[in-house]
Amino acid sequence: MIGLGRMGGNMAERLREHGHEVETYDPKVESTAATLEELCEQLGAPRALWMMVPAGAVTESTFQGLLAIVSPDDVIVDGGNSNFRESQRRYAAAKEKGVHFVDCGTSGGIWGLEVGYCLMVGGDDEPVTRLEPVFRALAPEDGYAHVGASGAGHFVKMVHNGIEYGLMQAYAEGFEVMRASEFDLDLHEIAGIWRYGSVVRSWLLELLHAAFEHEGSELEKIRGYVEDSGEGRWTIAEAIAEDVPVPVITAALFARFASRQEESFAAKVNAALRNQFGGHAVRAVAEAQAQTQDPRA
Length: 297
Description:
Number of strands: 5
Shape: elongated
Low-confidence stretches: none
């Protein structure tokens, strides 16, 4: 296991709990190996090397480092959130050296150690079959599938995360409507009852209930600044390429963009235009700053 962060460390522990021998490498965490070369020396051939590092430059440098030292018939697994096109390219590069490359979309977050990880695997049949005991140890029952050829695992995980954006935004908007209403609603209680029998029950709703439990129904200590790690953008780009409309996922991504703005310049343009064509009043900066952010005030 290469990369022992929030996901990789727990995955290594879960594998050990299921009887697998796991060697590790992470320059920032105590590991069994101090270098990739030493890690390879600790493993018997054919090796299985699982990268669990951030998508992008770190994944690429780790992959290239491994490709320089592995042997034919070894398997390199990318369990991170890489773009599926990059995974297809890495598959081709590995194949030229007689090395197998498997892309594994991994979902489960910090809860995976306890409940297992949903695994969406792409790649050739032989290496995937070889590693199936590993996949089944990491996944809960019925939580693993070999979904297709090279790139398919990360493609399915990309769409999974795009859907996640839409679900999260729908919950966010619904709870804001309730918070702004004339009723004195207990959002923590409502999130709680919706977990049972409701058609909108889900694990995300359970996590929202837990957040209200821990942070309070007003989420006072949390700033409404929402990052994205790329998968929503990639999903939308693929949808455009396929002429498939994805308005919900697109709106959810744009809502994340809006959350990062201290002040919307577009809104200023709108206000200025209304003033110019209709004489509608504009709110001065000082006046706006004096207003409370609580819509019920």
